[in-house]
Amino acid sequence: MQLGLVGLGRMGGNMRDRLRANGHEVIGYDRNPAVSDAGSLAELVGQLDTPRVVWVMVPAGATEATIDELAEHLGDGDIVIDGGNSRFSDDAPRAERLGAKGIGYVDVGVSGGVWGKEHGYALMVGGDHGLVKHCMPIFESLKPAGQYGFVHAGGTGAGHYAKMVHNGIEYGLMHAFAEGYELLDKSEFVDNVPGVIKSWREGSVVKSWLLDLLDNALDEDPELAGLRGWADDTGEGRWTVEEAIRLAVPMNVIAASLFARFVSRQDDSPAMKAIAALRQQFGGHAVKR
């Protein structure tokens, strides 16, 4: 199958390689001419046969402008796939704008990171059944081998919604491993923290890919001495908590893991200063100046 692919960064570039290895013709565009197959979006579209399918894999902040520019060069029967981490609520208005020009729209949540090129990507897809069916050869090549790794989650927005929840869960799982690591590290009973983590990789109920990645990190730096305790968030965790509030779903673990990331960015927490001041005021407790 022929595919246009916009955005050839860490994810997009690896996806292009995986698709080409599976026999697809992929024409990619990126602002970096060193990796791009086309000089512009217009040139990219011009190299595709109709009906065209173009997958957009750019950072969320650039998605809207990229799709709007792309739509100027597409026409009736073409399909745009957004595989970036867009907010699900952006999908329906985007699909409506494209639909007015006869252009189909499919939203895809993609998980797999830099490992997806070798192992495949988990794909959560939203959109019209006919559009999804048309794109299935691409999805089949990107997903892992076997019965898992793909779902047509529902209509427009369902793919990005599913990916949002996936990432919220990821926040909670990562933080549980992080807290367990810190407790092991501070314990006077455990002498081999990396060894404990490694021992869990087989036969344990917490066996997981995230655990494997933590083990890999400890192999490279057993005390994680080369890292600062600072963690960013890319939006999905916030959106998940917002949805939990909207739907009155108790989401204690995911919310706590999100707030923990905010704490990580404070060198000297104002909130903890206030707590220290209050403890000193009511109980005369010692404070650190």
Automatic annotation (TrEMBL):
Membrane-spanning parts: none
Keyword Oxidoreductase: yes
InterPro entries: 6-PGluconate_DH-like_C_sf (IPR008927), 6DGDH_YqeC (IPR004849), 6PGD_dom2 (IPR013328), 6PGDH_C (IPR006114), 6PGDH_NADP-bd (IPR006115), NAD(P)-bd_dom_sf (IPR036291), Pgluconate_DH (IPR006183)
Residues in the signal sequence: none
Pfam families: 6PGD, NAD_binding_2
Sequence ranges assigned to domain 6-phosphogluconate dehydrogenase C-terminal in this UniProt record: 159-289
Domain of life: Bacteria
Keywords recorded for this protein, A-Z: Gluconate utilization, Oxidoreductase
Cross-referenced SMART domains: 6PGD
NCBIfam families cross-referenced by the UniProt entry: gnd_rel (TIGR00872), PRK09599.1 (NF007161)
UniProt family annotation: Belongs to the 6-phosphogluconate dehydrogenase family.
Protein name, entry field: Decarboxylating 6-phosphogluconate dehydrogenase
Organism: Pilimelia columellifera subsp. columellifera
Higher taxonomy: Bacteria, Bacillati, Actinomycetota, Actinomycetes, Micromonosporales
Encoding gene, per UniProt annotation: gnd
